[in-house]
Model the fold of this input.
Amino acid sequence: MSRQHISRRRFLATTATTAAITIVSRHVLGGRRHTPPSEILTAGLIGCGGQGGEDLNTYIRAPGGDYKLLAACDVDKGRLDRARRKFGEHVELYTDWRRVIERKDIDVISIATPPHWHALMCIAAAQAGKDILCEKPMTRFIAEGRAVVTAVKRYGRVFQIGTSGRFGAYKSSRSRTIHKIMRSGLLRYCPAVYIQQGFFPVLRYCGKVNLKPLPVPAHLTDHCQS
Done:
């Protein structure tokens, strides 16, 4: 029986191809129940209070994709400790939000701080090339909101407000009905909008102007320096 001659170059090429196919797993190429690294969004969280992280779980995670939280930031040591237990030991903790935004390995910044920080953080995140998920209310003043919009457009980023009633599974039948009415053109001209002062989110999230200044709590003082 005659032997088929195989050149050394052909043998090496065939061996290398076979090895590559064998070594590369589903964790790299993707497939059923496996998301390839190229489809995983890396995220940084600023603000680890009650809403911190909930937007990431709700809006960034989508069918066929996933996210990985790499960093979390808060000036409250207790909240940072809870974030470590909630998100895992792999998450790096910070007390200075600028250290999170400047990281090159983060795609998305989720901002869940009090609203007077939103504009500054959103603009800085856009300048750093990050997409942004910001809690409501977006900003305290209209001018701040316009500045955020300008920055997002200038740097070509994606921006989303964490309004659960408008996205994904949280779209209720009531919300869809409201949207249909608004798009129908049946509504008359609306000269003004009035906000009920007793509605607690307005007072809670926008702040009260008659509160007296208080000293910085001890558990914040030692963790504000970075």
In short: The chain has ten helices and six strands.
